[in-house]
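Hi L.,

You mentioned the student needs an example of a multi-chain input paired with its predicted structure. This one should do, with 488 residues in total across all chains.
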Amino acid sequence: MIPADLKYTQSHEWVSLSGDVATMGITDYAQSQLGDITYVELPAPGKQTTAGEAVAVVESVKAASDIYAPAAGEVSEVNESLEGSPEHINNDPYKEGWLLKISGVQPSDIDALMTADQYEKFLEVGAD
Amino acid sequence: MKRTPIAQVHEEAGARMVDFSGWYLPVQYSGILAEHAAVREGCGIFDTCHMGRLVIQGEKAAAFISSTLTVDAQAMQDGQCRYGFMLNENAGIIDDLIVYRRAGDRFMVVVNSATHDKDISHLKSRLPAGITIEDIGPATAKIDVQGPSSPHIIGHALNKDLSELRYFRFTTLDHDGQPATVSRTGYTGETGFEIYLPAEKAASLWSDLIDAGALPCGLGARDTLRLEAGLPLYGHELTEEADPVAAGMMRYIDLSRDFLGADALRVKAGTVPSHKLTPFRIEGRQAARHGNRAVINGEEIGWVTSGSFAPTLGYSIGFAYIDPSRLGNTETFGIDNGRKILNASITQSPFYRKKRKAEG
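Structure written out for the whole complex:
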């Protein structure tokens, strides 16, 4: 299921915007492709982000994958529960498995991302 | 890609399939962690039809194997298996393998899939008259049944009590009118069996094992299980550039015997290797990966051959070839994963040992 109220990147992150704070995680499709997640490397709060640049790393049993920031801003909070329970990402990618928040985001950067309908079509035509 | 006799069953079950050295095999069914746990606590099954199976037979086949491999086939009893190596003249490891003595001068040798062709070429280049090598892989199948409840599960599926079969022994029994060979061996560090049977019987036995309570597993869990058990993987810990001294495998080899590579190995056994296979652990869950550099003060001292989060242990483990002269007396080193330096400390292998009560 792809939640209708979120925005999506081509690299399979989801984003929700509240004021100028973006909360992000990885999509259900992404977690199912990665398989069991065993470790998450999160940035220190205060880190400046650039749209399309790696901001975190998610490790599954088989591989490590970069997670990309959807917009420029500053990391304001990270999901510390993932340190001991990275499986939240597999079990509940859109809620308990959120990764981090970025503040000072330009809303237009988030508006430019895919809607749920667009992301669903993007997956159908064959995502990498 | 080559398909195993069980490939269609994997597809229909929705397993995630990958290309593994030219074979179309499941990397995971329900998930690597669930499959790993099933083998540690219950029973998991693996399609290992990609493993090569060669029958070597003829007068003096035992002498041929004993002089070509590190396994002293002449000292084996019928119904016994032994683990060993195929070495080149420099004691480089061409392959690791298991020799089964079926009867007298009739043997089965089980080899890795990626090395299958070069193994056959090597054996044939040394083959005396009167001895034949037959590749029975295409006509047969191999299924591994692993975990503390595997004696019960296999007993149910094969309708035969095999709980008394000793470690590294095998037996041949009748399964549905066809011969099936079952050995008390495996690649998980757990009580378990490997079954060899005619290819056309494999899919139905696979289903029977699941009906008896086994969880189907893929190559992902097979890799984490073998790594926790400290078992080497060809192409990672074992290569032609490595030798049994550097790889820490001398406990499997009798150097008082003569076999191809023995002279070079005796020389190596008396010297310190340039790099020695070293088991390490990392505090926390972040894993080192194959190919990562091992470093001390920014200088390279070796490389990682395998690394993973260890599900049973709750922290990360791995093997690395480390230059002993650069290590000195320290028990710790860094691993550069490309983003940061992980803190590794030398530990003991096997990383995990099965609970004794699990032994049937």
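You could point out the following to them. Chain B has a mean pLDDT of 96. The two ends of chain B are 38 Å apart (CA to CA).

Best wishes,
N.
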